Amino acid sequence: MRYLPGLLACCLATGIASGVAAQQRIASLNLCTDLLLLELVPRERIVSLSYWAADPDLSYLADRVGDIPLNHSLAEEIVPMQPDLVLAGQFSDIKVVDLLRRLDHRVEVLDVPLTLEGMREHILAFGELVDAREQAELLAAELDRRIAQVSADSRRLGGEAPLAVVYGPQGVSPGRDTLMDDLLTLAGYRNLTAELDIVSYGTLSLEALVRAEPDLLVLDDLSLNRDSVAHQALRHPALLRHFAPDQVISLPPSLTACVGRTSAEAAEQLLTLRVGR
Amino acid sequence: MKTTAVMAMLLLVLLAASLLALAHGEVWLNPLATGEERWRDTVLWEIRLPRVMLAILVGGVLGLSGAALQGLLRNPLADPSIVGVSACAALGAVIVLYSGLASLAWFSLPLGGMLGAGLSVVLVYLLAGSRSSVFSLILAGMAVNAFVGALIALVLNVASNPFAMSEIVYWLLGSFANRSLQDVMIAGPFMLAGSLAVLTAGRYLDALSLGEETATTLGFDPQRWRWIVVGGVAASVGAAVSVSGNIGFVGLVVPHLLRPLVGHEPRRLLWVSALGGAILLVLADMLVQAISGRVELKLGVITALIGGPFFLYIIMRTRSSEW
Amino acid sequence: MVSELRADGIGFRYRDVPVLRDVSIALGRGETVGLIGPNGAGKTTLLKILAGLLSPGAGEVSLGGAPLPDLHENQRARLLAYLPQGAPAHWPLSVERVVELGRIPHRAWWQPLAEADQAAVDKALAATDAERLRGRIVTTLSGGERARVLLARVFATEPGFILADEPVASLDPFHQLQVMDTLRAHACANGGVLVVMHDLNLAARYCDRLVALDRGQLVCEGPPREVLEDPALAAAYSVRIDVVEEGDGLWVRYR
Fold first, then answer.
1. Which of B218, B259, B270 to probe by mutation at the C interface, max C CB count within 10 Å?
2. Average pLDDT value over all residues in chain B
3. Of the four, A69, A222, A238, C164, which is 20 to 30 A from B40 by CA?
4. Is any Cβ of chain C less than 8 angstroms from the Cβ of B182?
């Protein structure tokens, strides 16, 4: 009995594959590959997305997910769908990847870029992989153009670069070689954490934060589950009292979760903020 | 007379330690001088002062509660963290915090801690009995701690908190990092009220040195006074844990070290243990900040490093006489 | 002045097993009463009921005419002192501090030890021959020394009535006599003493009156000689008892 759904799905899959040869069916285990799939590929070719894709806090395309089945990176969810291609990220669970490969699935583990560098190549390669070259080229071109615009506007604005810091739950803050660092630099800010010589992510104490007297405090993650001790650092009265309301903004995590369309969006928002002051 | 001298000495040490803790941080600041830069005031009075105040209050509560429980159970191994009171308080606070109930009223978080602590006292009484031997008390505490630790993990998992792992560590080991004056305000009144209740029971604990029957014939209603001590401990520890997590062993180490200084008298021990606990946590919190790398160590790590070997030492000393 | 501690028709059951049945006893000022009887007769239970530590299932205990439960705890503690059998000392306190605990009913919690309190403590230590133990640690004392210190604690309270459960059990002959002398002196100074005893010779010599219990019931009571010669007492102990009057007092032989 328990093999029946799998068998059925198997027969269905072979039927479709023989009928419409070019229609590659894809499953994704990673939020960033979810988002690119939704951007580039028609819905009917997506057989499954990770459950994060439907979380509006993290996914800017959550409303486009609709009735696409969601997975929790479990092989038993993927196998019955018999996808032609399974996409995973470099941080996906290696055990699932191995298991799916042993069950004769084609699994591509993609090096999802963590900074703007390599974004263009990643999108184009992704387009090749999922048979959506044209859409990928369009997207890459659009992002190139928007980012160049931000860069140009920022340079035209001139003046002294304001000091900014991104502060997340538990005092986690992105330093050098992070997407947020790229976006801040692009919009003409200095990143406090990077200047403290922190590579990738590090923690910043409240004391260090206040002492550095940054011009802009970007609070990260405020829309996720707020009832935790981790978030209490973000609501510390010292921050609220020390900084003027216009010195503090919060970026929704959906803007910074993945490198892609949202990155241009975030850079534009940061630049607008600089123009405003 | 001698006790007054001991108290005065401890008060002086506490004052010095607190000033030092205010001055000490990532940079040294003189708390007595007024500075020109705004960040100095924010760092001193909004970030460091609440930490020091909480360390004093929570340390005082834990030292006092340890001394009171030891007097009540006439057992040198009784301590709010060992018998499971702290863990249950943490569970109460965890349920309130992660279910979002904390925003209902300003006192709901300490209330959760106090309810949890109250429940644990009942549990320990049921498991070990009111006349517990060293052995049954430790076993009961172990069972409660293991069970409640699992419940905390479960609640955090159900709350699907992205920081669940580090939050579990926080609740099980405790920390004063990122605490604000707000925490002092919401938990402070309950810590003080509970401690006052415990302190009024000093003479009862003295009388209990000669056994429950003698204490009763000396004019103490055992039922009433037991509830005053237990209720005071539950309220103060519950409120303390709800803003600092479960910082272990303070109530074990401090009374044990100070007992000889006050002639082993339970009543005098209450007062000096409160001061001693405060000193210990102010110093431990300073140490935590001094030795930590980029991610701050939890305070319970320090107290457990001191308290663990101590615990074994006391067990070995009491083993021959009581087991 | 409260003149009498009395219990009327006391009944007590422990887990459905009757321990005491319809026992009545009275203790007046100026008398030393011995409570005797074989092991398991219910002597300690009766003493605890009189001290207010246990509430009787039937009957009533009254102090100076007022029911015991109606008295304020502090008032009761000043009038009625209880010395349990083999009382523990849980912490290594100094002897002086232990004896000072006897003054608790006399002062409110904020009051320090007054001169009167200190005098009572000194007197109690002197009466029990424990002055030289004053600075010692109670947990390091021998059994006999400890018994005297705990008795001194009782005297420090300066109670009207003393209920003592086998106060001489662990003492050498010299201190047995000394403790009994002290208790008797308390009675002579217009106090009342009820003492549980196993040594019938001491009971005969020191008590004005004896009360004998067996299996939860009063067997006989009255002057020592009458009680000791009562065949019911011999039956209760399952021995033969001979009472001899010799020199200054009674001597009891049992076989």
1. B218
2. 89
3. A222
4. no
